[in-house]
Amino acid sequence: MGTGLIGTSVALALSARGVTTHLIDRNPENVRIAAALGAGTAAPPGGPVDLAVVAVPPSDVARTVAEYQKRELARAYTDVASVKAAPYAQCAELGCDLTTLVGGHPMAGGERSGPLDARADLFTDRPWVFTPAVETSENTLNVALELASLCGAVPVVLDADDHDRAVALVSHLPHLLASLTGARLLDGEEYALRLAGRGMRDAVRTAGGDAGLWADILASNASAVGAVLAELSADLGRAAHALDRLAHGGPEQRGDAYEELTGLLRRGSEGRDRIAPSLGGGAGSYVWLSVAVDGPDRRAEHLLADVSTSRVGLERMVLPDESVHPDGPVGLLVARETAWPLSEALRDRGWAVQRGTAGAGPVPADGAGIAAGPARHAAAM
Fold first, then answer.
1. Closest CA to 290 of 340, 361, 228
2. Phi/psi at 300 (nearest 5 deg)?
3. What is the CATH number of domain 5-159?
4. Which CATH superfamily is domain 286-358 in?
5. pLDDT at residue 279, rounded to an integer
6. Exposed, middle or buried by CB within 10 Å (0-12, 13-18, 19+), for 193?
7. What are 13-62's pLDDT values in tens digits?
């Protein structure tokens, strides 16, 4: 239920693994587009399916689950909303069968929310959080875990409140900051906007998301987002005060202010290091691309030139050991959301590219990390 970016991507991944997938959406045009992409069928199922995937905004989850449980659409239900505690509490208030329900949240997405931007590999190597409650049956959780496996994701089990605090920090706050930063551009002079480079574009990248959907998300997780925003506001206040003293204070004030500003920036660098990838292993946010360099026109410097043309930043680069295998592949570590477009761009320029997980090393086999499971019958809603 819901054939936007996430719902259609789930359906594409399941259909690619041989799962009979039914598409349901209040917008018939979205269903037609998703079906045309090969995500499944618009025909209703003839009986209860194994799993219903509820891909609707957080405030619509409980109503949707209640409605389709009454219709006996499925034997198990999970959602993909980025808030977990509030929708579950609302399901309980509506009298939903909680034994057949488990909250879920795949940690993947994009700037746009429609089915045209859906991809079957959207969840590959990405965390997929599940928040089972005491009422959740073992079968319901197992079917949901199989869903994540079929989509190539990495299952993570968390308490609902722990999940909501985590995504407030690593997902909801960054989106809010991107939107607020983007709003500052409305008042910018035209000459200033022409100077905007990659730093600003990266900072506002996610601001293009659906404003209504994100207002729903933030409202549903208001307490957790508000708490981390208050902490950030305190740091912003300290930074503003330091800058004011640097601009208008005496020599002693400027010295203290400079130290405080440096401390704030240093803490930012230290925080960034906690999520930065490492060569020996890393978060699912990063992907190794292994690129063959085996000819005079396929040298590392030529590869770097083509990467630069693609306007994709590299996190790491590993050159082949010239004493062992001088013509071996070059390993490129990139943010997961840029791996697919960079791979396609390099292939268009004649490079042979393979992809693997951040922890698999620079020469992984294609499809690493995807676990197979028996065929299932699902409804992507």
1. 361
2. -60, -35
3. 3.40.50.720
4. ACT domain (3.30.70.260)
5. 44
6. exposed
7. 999 999 999 999 999 999 999 999 999 999 999 999 999 999 999 999 99
